[in-house]
């Protein structure tokens, strides 16, 4: 599927940063600015994945999650996936104890969403304090075959780790909700959903 869509991708993605459309190459050279944007109140970006265009925000920013729902006209009962940069981080966000060894590494990175059970113990579930799929017992996991997205998530994780080290919680320095240090070990996921109005066809190109 990605190869069939590749001729439609323009290698650009729009952000809410002054309504600019900038190239993935330029964005890769300015990851800190993109990280800062995502870390601010309601920070939402649109970007190409290995399948279609998506809307993304920090998993720790409840206001941004709600903003994505408003943009799409999406019901709170419709779940959204989280996007990670490494397969090794998946077990932090959902229960993988019954998954055969090596299966997730065979599937990811790639153009698939893997549905896995959330932790039954809310104290163990790092998603329980956020607005992401509060009534759903499963969570969709994405690790796109996109170097840019994985680098962006890695940069978010580094910022979160640095904020924790200096004792400056993201809650105080940005619009993100407070999260404990155990979340850092599992990375800093993006909430990721298709960039379209709910129920409408998915976006596979940019119109300017």
Automatic annotation (TrEMBL):
Highest taxon of the lineage: Eukaryota
GO CC terms: cytoplasm
Protein name (record): Threonylcarbamoyl-AMP synthase
Subcellular location: Cytoplasm
Species of origin: Schistosoma margrebowiei
Reaction(s) the record says it catalyses: L-threonine + hydrogencarbonate + ATP = L-threonylcarbamoyladenylate + diphosphate + H2O
Pfam families: Sua5_yciO_yrdC
Family: Belongs to the SUA5 family.
InterPro entries to which the protein is assigned, alphabetical: DHBP_synth_RibB-like_a/b_dom, Sua5-like_dom, TC-AMP_synthase_SUA5
Molecular function terms, GO-annotated: double-stranded RNA binding; L-threonylcarbamoyladenylate synthase; tRNA binding
PROSITE patterns: YRDC (PS51163)
Location of the YrdC-like domain: 28-208
One of the protein's GO biological processes: regulation of translational fidelity
Record-listed E.C. numbers: 2.7.7.87
Enzyme class: transferase
Primary location class: cytoplasm
Key words of the record: Cytoplasm, Transferase
């Amino acid at each position: 599927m990605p190869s069939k869509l590749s001729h439609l991708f323009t290698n650009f993605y729009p952000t809410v940063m002054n309504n600019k459309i900038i190239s993935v190459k330029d964005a890769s050279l300015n990851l800190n600015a993109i990280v800062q944007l995502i870390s601010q109140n309601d920070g939402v970006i649109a970007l190409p994945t290995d399948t279609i265009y998506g809307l993304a925000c920090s998993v720790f920013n409840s206001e941004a999650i709600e903003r994505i729902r408003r943009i799409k006209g999406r019901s709170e009962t419709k779940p959204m996936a989280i996007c990670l940069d490494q397969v090794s981080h998946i077990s932090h966000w959902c229960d993988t104890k019954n998954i055969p060894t090596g299966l997730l590494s065979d599937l990811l990175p790639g153009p698939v969403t893997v549905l896995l059970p959330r932790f039954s113990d809310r104290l163990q579930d790092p998603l329980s304090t956020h607005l992401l799929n509060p009534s759903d017992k499963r969570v969709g996991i994405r690790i796109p075959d996109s170097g840019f997205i994985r680098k962006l998530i890695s940069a978010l994780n580094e910022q979160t780790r640095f904020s924790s080290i200096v004792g400056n919680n993201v809650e105080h320095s940005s619009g993100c909700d407070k999260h404990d240090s155990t979340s850092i070990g599992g990375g800093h996921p993006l909430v990721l959903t298709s960039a379209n109005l709910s129920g409408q066809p998915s976006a596979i190109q940019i119109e300017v």
